[in-house]
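Methods: example folding runs. The two proteins below were folded one after another, and each record is reproduced exactly as written to the output file, sequence line first and structure-token line second.
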Amino acid sequence: MFEWLEEEMARIKTRKFHLVDGPAPAELRQAVESCKLPLPPSYKEFVLRFGNAELYRYSTNYYVTIFAGPREAENLDGEAFVQFGRTWTSYAYFRESLLVQSKESPVFESFQNGMRKTADGFDEWLKTKSIAARKRFKKVEWEAIEAGPTPFTDHERAVVAARKQFRWRVVGVAPNEDLRFEIHNGSAMTLPYLSVGIRGKMRPPKTGPLEGGGYLPTVSIHPGETRLLEYDCYKQFIAPEDTEVFELPEPGPEDREQYWEFKSSA
């Protein structure tokens, strides 16, 4: 049923463009097959074949996300729903009252302007969202995604090694609600920025928890130095006490645009 996706994934040489767990281990397979909810067959097949999935990466986000374990949602419009995924602009659900054993079920999506049916079944929904996601990439961009990124240069490898030697911690809150960071450069070179992850409890109404990134300006922190700096961590959306800053994983060549360590400080 999802051969088209497997074929697409096989053509793409860019790591992390499609992130999937892979075939379900025995424990997950048993949980899916014995689930009390009569989940649609196409959704169950997807989960058993791919597990959790994040598809069509753009910057640090993914256009389509599918959960291996459906999540019960609060009653929406007076009905009980089960969330199985999301897109950039919506959350995707099955309506519990319409779930029937071994039958497909309509997909509903909640947008900021309300809830509506968007597909007759999970397979149709995924194909439609995937087509829409691919259309967001220009032809030359898609060809580059399939070909994969060029390997790191010697300088870029040095940048990756240097960022491992930086140490930072949040040490307080400035009067303007920026977070205060203490940063130590333990490397042998200066970096223009240090990329970090930022997440918080809430975004603007109805859009859920926030998760993004920040780029701490470190060009003035020379090897061996420790400096304090202040940085706006989405303070217009989340209070400082509700903000968590976390380390990002080591970047690969496919992450050049997301990690500002590779950019010029000019």
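Second run, written to the same file directly after the first:
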Amino acid sequence: MPSVLIVDDLLSIHEMLEAVIQPTGFTTSFTTDGEKALARYKAEKFDLVLADIDMKPMDGITLLKQIKLYDPNTVVVIMTAYASTESAVQALKFGAFDYLQKPFRVDELIATLKRGLEYKHFQAERASAGGVSSAKAGDIEARIIGKSPPVKKLIQQVKKLATVRTPVLLTGESGSGKTTLAEVLHAGSNPPEAPLVRIDCSLCNEANFRSGLLGENGEGGTWVKQARGGTLFLQHIQCLSLPMQKELVSVLRNNAHGFRLICTTSEDLEKLTDEGKFHDELFYRVASLPVHVPPLRDRAGDIPLLAKHFASQGTNPHFDAGLLEFSDDALAVLTAYHWPGNLAELNQVVSKIAATAETRIVTSQQLPMRLRELKHWPSLAEYLAGQEKQYIDMVLHVSRGDKAVAAKVLGVDTGKLG
């Protein structure tokens, strides 16, 4: 039978919890303070820990931190008697699975413990399976195009995140590939038939939001029900109003582990939270595993691969678009451009070229003028190491041999140009 270690300094709480928990299939053990609880957990390894926040000499938050240091996978549920959510948010910040506010309902307690147990079993199954399967690992690498250090790091993060169903927050600039990454995470952590329900919060009015996410009783509307067993994907979560954010918290408390939650944002949610513009509890519920998606300018070495990939997905009336190639000067321009629209902009540019090119070789003159304007190019010091000569030659070519103009763009003395 699954075991619960209950930590509370009131014996009356022990008796009450024993009476309501044991009939549901859990065994219960008790301690009256955090220090004893930590010692017992290390000695006996319980499935779940249910701890009060207000204890002496070691309070619930300190106990939570100590247990997480000993075993990061421990499922800890915090009980709090405070009317505010401040202590509860602090508990979520330090890794609590969830919190219960006294006085809580018996059905709420049992549902929380069962969700915690399900999550623990899921973690154990993934660990015994050795992480993401080789087939899914191959799918991940096929969807995330690139070999640059930032992308290699990103792929490793995604492989790890595909082994759990913990909420993930994808951060990054517009067009950087957050949506594709969410789809990859969904496919990596769910069976093929699992649903992916995508909601764009920037287009969501309060009426639709309440109907789709909250439902009539606040326990989940149509979108939540559709996402169960799969992924609920909230794009641009920073666009929700504070009232909607607050109501979303209640939905997540009741449904947080019935689906995989993935959110995206192009803004600094932690800063918005500090400024009171984003709900603090919602932040800690969605941002437990933040993943930053790098902008294209920080992975410029991947641009030749990405250009080839986007070209191969297009159609051309004269030849197979997959055969399209970019000349060295074209690649130099593509690589040097700052790409404010990131992957989305590169895809748009390459797709148009792939559809209209009359020859298989694309030169720099066939690229849009804005890509070839020197004002959009970085200085030499900002450019990728190892491509100095190629870049100097390209700047000289675009500036029509004017070394003074080229030196200004590069940020070097004209003598550097020979």
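Comment on the second run: The chain has a mean pLDDT of 84.
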